[in-house]
From TrEMBL, chain A:
It holds the Pfam family ATP-synt_F. This is V-type proton ATPase subunit F. GO terms for molecular function: proton-transporting ATPase activity, rotational mechanism. The keyword Transport applies. It comes from the Eukaryota. Subunit of the V1 complex of vacuolar(H+)-ATPase (V-ATPase), a multisubunit enzyme composed of a peripheral complex (V1) that hydrolyzes ATP and a membrane integral complex (V0) that translocates protons. V-ATPase is responsible for acidifying and maintaining the pH of intracellular compartments. V-ATPase is a heteromultimeric enzyme made up of two complexes: the ATP-hydrolytic V1 complex and the proton translocation V0 complex.
UniProtKB/TrEMBL annotation, chain B:
Residues 123-148, 230-267 are annotated as: Disordered. PANTHER family: V-TYPE ATP SYNTHASE SUBUNIT D. Residues 234-252 have a biased composition (Basic and acidic residues). It holds the Pfam family ATP-synt_D. Keywords: Ion transport, Transport. It comes from Bathycoccus prasinos. Residues 130-144 have a biased composition (Low complexity). It comes from the Eukaryota. Residues 253-262 have a biased composition (Gly residues). This is Vacuolar ATP synthase subunit D. InterPro entries: V_ATPase_D (IPR002699). Belongs to the V-ATPase D subunit family. The keyword Endoplasmic reticulum does not apply.
TrEMBL record, chain C:
Keywords: Hydrogen ion transport, Ion transport, Transport. This is V-type proton ATPase subunit. Subunit of the V0 complex of vacuolar(H+)-ATPase (V-ATPase), a multisubunit enzyme composed of a peripheral complex (V1) that hydrolyzes ATP and a membrane integral complex (V0) that translocates protons. V-ATPase is responsible for acidifying and maintaining the pH of intracellular compartments and in some cell types, is targeted to the plasma membrane, where it is responsible for acidifying the extracellular environment. GO terms for cellular component: proton-transporting V-type ATPase, V0 domain. V-ATPase is a heteromultimeric enzyme made up of two complexes: the ATP-hydrolytic V1 complex and the proton translocation V0 complex. The keyword Transferase does not apply. Belongs to the V-ATPase V0D/AC39 subunit family. One of its GO terms (molecular function) is proton-transporting ATPase activity, rotational mechanism. InterPro entries: ATPase_csu/dsu_sf (IPR036079), ATPase_V0-cplx_csu/dsu (IPR002843), ATPase_V0-cplx_dsu (IPR016727), V-type_ATPase_csu/dsu (IPR035067), V-type_ATPase_csu/dsu_dom_3 (IPR044911).
């Protein structure tokens, strides 16, 4: 475990020279907003760091994007809209690496449901129900 | 139990000393690790609470950000999103920098947002150079929606940057959470191992060695007693013989006469001396 | 005379006006709890036939799409009827604004090497023209002008804006606004040429549009690198605020100054109810536009109602977008900030 942390730290140190990227998977409005904020990136092969999920986006595409973003070395944080995370819940739950961090974010027209959030679930589980003011 | 859960050692005094030292080491290590685990879980609990808080404020931020986008769409028309989507090119303006934070010897990666479109006033030294290179893209998006909705777009941009700030914070908390989770698990495993396996085993070994040594001592004592008894018996026999001899022979008496009185003492003395020697 | 040529279309437009959502409709819509409810309510209106076949779950963007379809439907009907000259030209002119947006969209897309088909999907249906697909293949703006746009009415505007400048160095937003300026000017010229009542009402509304653009450009360029002269170049050369108001606008450095310029112009009364909120100024302009447009229907025998109809439909799309987004995002208390009831 400590070795894993060390290697993570090393990876972080290596990429920190110019900073790592944030990746987004979400609905059009959310992604547009984040792109507006300036996280959009296209690399030399015109590969982007975001995926717009439309009603006709297949689960396969979401899976691929998620796997791609979580394995890319230059990505430090993956933002994933909750309704997308719900589609590929098993993948998200399976994912346990500290880097890149996977964050579930609410999307405007899907009300945020904290009980579905895999991290928040673990937090709740650890704190115990009704414990510590939760 | 004592036969299975102990180290396989030769029960001698030197080994006892070694094992005792190890026991002390284990106990000290246990205390230290226990402290580390406590420190980690203290931090862990803080982080958990913060995660919950940040998650909630993230919800708020995201809400206001997406509403700002709605405002932009209202004024600028639906087509405005294409302008934004299509203007993505090249390098990201906002990136995260990661550095390691140290909690009780556990390295916790932490993120910090940075980049030319700096979220915060002070975004670190490295961003200065990127600022100049991306100045063109920055100004490009500045003019987005010049005819209509430009103000709203800038507002929306700001709102999303704020949301990003919270998200990055949340990301570091979450990473810290996962890292600490693992660290605490390993530490607890070690603490438990020390407490429930290593220490009892060493303690058992110590008591085993002590027991063995006691046993040896008792055996030795018994043996000595036997020797003493044998010697006493021999001395008595000799005395009787001497007595019978001194009755018959006067010559011998001179020899025995020199120590006739303190014979018992002498034997006793010799015995004690023997014992010392034997031991 | 008017009736024999354009009477049928005018009647059609007036008929369509009945299809606008009314104040009662909006207050009913405000009571909706979900986007699904909105959809349900809208099926009982003119949008019914369009929304019926859409699958759940309903998304705000779906409603917007349907509203757009409605406009397109109406306009394709106008096309179908084959309006006589000069009304047909007038109707074409209404579409030029969208065309400009589409061209800009295609050009930015082409510069970023997007898929042409993907870009075409994003284009506004009213702004389509035959050669639009070939825009995707254009690599620089000069080529764009030479090869593609020559056949379109927009080409004249291009020539007007950038006669000898190097097109590649022009910021795309400035290009868009310069084109729009040329378009407004041309539209203004056309409406004046038509004469009569049309000239009168269109002058009023186009002046308003020109002034609004000037104010918006000013507000949106505060704090950017756009220079004072460049800013003034984007202002139309007519309008109620031309030239004094525009000169003052060009000098503005912050929002307060803009407000004071507006107060000193013919628009002083519209700003009275507005506070210093930036959102409000847009809303006030939209409200004024709606007012002006609906008053156009009070007069007969002019083309202004077609313009008004389009603008009012646009406002309805905005209203519904705002309404459904507010409801979807659980921000119902903000609904009043964006919805302007038309009748």
């Amino acid at each position: 475990m400590s070795a894993a942390t060390a290697s993570n730290a090393a990876a972080v140190a290596a990429s920190s020279s110019e900073g790592s990227l944030l990746a987004v998977i979400g609905d059009e409005d959310t992604v547009t907003g984040f792109l507006l904020a300036g996280i959009g990136n296209l690399d030399a092969r015109r590969k982007s760091n975001f995926l717009i999920v439309k009603p006709d986006t297949s689960r396969r595409e979401m899976e691929d994007a998620f796997k791609d973003f979580t394995t890319r070395e230059d990505v430090a944080v993956v933002l994933i809209a909750q309704f997308v995370a719900n589609e590929i819940r098993y993948l998200v739950n399976e994912y346990a690496e500290p880097i890149p961090a996977v964050l579930e974010i609410p999307s405007p027209d899907h009300p945020y449901d904290p009980s579905a959030d895999s991290i928040l679930n673990r937090v709740k589980h650890l704190l115990g129900a009704g414990n510590d003011g939760l | 139990m004592s036969t299975t859960n102990r180290l396989n050692v030769v029960p001698t005094v030197t080994v006892l000393a070694v094992v005792k030292n190890r026991l002390i080491g284990a106990q000290r290590g246990y205390k230290l690790l226990k402290k580390k685990a406590d420190a980690l879980s203290l931090r862990y609990r803080q982080i958990l609470k913060k995660i919950v808080q940040t998650k909630l404020s993230m919800g708020e931020n995201m809400k206001s950000a997406s509403f700002a986008w709605t405002e932009a769409k209202y004024v600028g028309g639906d087509g405005i999103k294409h302008t934004v989507l299509d203007s993505v090119d090249g390098k990201a303006e906002i990136r995260v920098r990661a550095y390691a934070d140290n909690v009780a010897g556990v390295k916790i990666p932490k993120f910090n947002a940075c980049g030319s479109g700096s979220l915060i006033g002070a975004s670190g030294g490295g961003s200065g150079e990127t600022g100049t290179t991306t100045a063109t893209t920055e100004s490009k998006s500045e003019l987005t929606g010049l005819g209509r909705g430009g103000k709203q777009i800038q507002k929306c941009k700001k709102a999303y940057k704020e949301a990003l700030q919270t998200l990055v914070e949340l990301a570091s908390l979450q990473t810290a959470f996962l890292t600490l989770d693992q660290a605490i698990k390993t530490t607890n495993r070690r603490v438990n191992a020390l407490e429930n396996v290593v220490t009892p085993r060493l303690e058992n070994t110590v008591s085993y060695i002590k027991g063995e040594l006691d046993e040896l001592e008792r055996e030795e004592f018994f043996r000595l007693k036997k020797v003493q008894a044998k010697k006493k018996k021999d001395a008595k026999e000799r005395e009787e013989k001497e007595e019978s001899l001194s009755k018959g022979e006067g010559v011998v008496k001179g020899e025995g006469g020199s120590g006739a009185g303190p014979v018992g003492n002498l034997i006793d003395f010799a015995n004690e001396k023997d014992e010392d020697l034997l031991f | 005379m008017f009736n024999t040529k354009d009477g049928f279309l005018e009647a059609t437009v007036r008929g369509c006006v009945g299809g606008f959502l009314r104040t009662e409709d909006y207050s009913n819509l405000q009571q909706c709890e979900t986007v699904e409810d909105i959809k349900l309510y809208l099926t009982s209106t003119d949008y019914g036939s369009l929304l019926q076949n859409e699958a759940s779950p309903t998304h705000p963007s779906l409603i917007v799409r349907c509203c757009l379809k409605k406009i397109v439907q109406d306009f394709s009907f106008f096309d179908l009827v084959k309006a006589a000259e000069p009304l047909s030209t007038f109707l074409q002119y209404l579409k030029y604004g969208y065309m400009i947006d589409n061209i800009v969209l295609m050009v930015t897309g082409a510069m970023h090497e997007r898929e042409v088909t993907e870009l075409l999907d994003k284009c506004h249906p009213l702004g389509m023209f035959d050669s639009i697909a070939s825009l995707g293949a254009v690599s620089n703006l000069r080529e764009l002008h030479r090869i593609v746009l020559v056949d379109t009415p927009i080409s004249a505007y291009f020539g007007e804006c950038f006669r000898d400048e190097n097109l590649d160095e022009v910021n795309i937003e400035i290009l868009r606004n310069s084109l729009y300026k040329a378009y407004l000017k041309d539209f203004f010229r056309l409406s004046q040429m038509l004469g009569g009542l049309t000239a009168e009402v269109m002058k009023e509304i186009l002046c308003f549009e020109a002034d609004r653009r000037a104010v918006n450009i000013t507000i949106n360029s505060i704090g950017t690198e756009l220079s004072r002269d460049d800013r003034q170049k984007l202002f139309s050369d007519f309008g109620h605020m031309h030239p004094e108001g525009q000169r003052d606008l060009a000098l503005c450095r912050d929002f307060e100054q803009v407000v004071s310029v507006i107060v000193n112009s013919t628009y002083q009364n519209i700003l009275q109810k507005s506070t210093s909120e930036e959102m409000n100024i847009d809303k006030v302009f939209y409200e004024t536009e709606v007012m002006k447009c609906s008053s156009m229907f009070a007069q007969q025998f002019h083309y202004g109602i077609f313009y008004a109809y389009l603008k009012l439909r646009e406002q309805e799309v905005r209203n519904l977008m705002w309404l459904s987004e507010c409801i979807a995002q659980d921000q119902k208390y903000r609904i009043v900030d964006g919805v302007i009831s038309i009748f």
